[in-house]
Amino acid sequence: MNDNEIPKPKITLKNIISFFEGNIRMLGDRFNTLPKYKKEQILYRAEICKESCLPLGKCPECGCSLPGKWYSTVSCNKGKKFPNMMGPVDWTKFKHENDLKFDL
Fold first, then answer.
1. What's the domain count of the chain?
2. 21: confidence class by pLDDT, cuts 50, 70, 90
3. Torsion angle, CA of 29/92/50/67, rounded to 10 degrees?
4. What pLDDT score does 92 carry?
5. Residue-by-residue DSSP string for 78-100
6. Cβ neighbourhood burial of 89 (10 Å; 0-12, 13-18, 19+)
7. Residue 64: which domain range?
């Protein structure tokens, strides 16, 4: 996939909020203020996207920049690659069902 095929992010209120949310969380991550369950989900998203999105520096689904997109609550791919950000209980269940382990 080349750059011409990747959509440009749409400027909508929802996307603006998602952009700020993701970048604020990313800043919080740099200061170690993210809860463990969110940090694990971000690492999971990064692993899922390491070959398809990371080399492009953006999501091929929505065109949003990385790594900021990994920090936002809403998945741009309707759960095809990874689900929306989950709360601690749902994330624990998801990890168990998918045999995911993290060493943080």
1. 1
2. very high
3. -30
4. 97
5. TTSSSPPP--HHHHHHHHHHTT-
6. exposed
7. 3-97
Burial status of residue 48 (CB atoms within 10 A of its CB: 0-12, 13-18, 19 or more) = middle
Residue whose token pair is 């998801």: 94
In a domain, 69, yes or no: yes
Pairwise CA distance, residues 102 & 39, whole Å: 10
| Domain assignment of residue 104, yes or no | no
Nearest to 49 by CA among 75, 24, 31: 75
Q: Is residue 102 part of a domain?
A: no
* Alpha-carbon separation of residue 5 from 9, 15, 70 (angstroms): 12, 20, 21
- In this prediction the pTM is 0.85
**47 domain-assigned:** yes
Span 18-33, mean pLDDT? Answer: 93
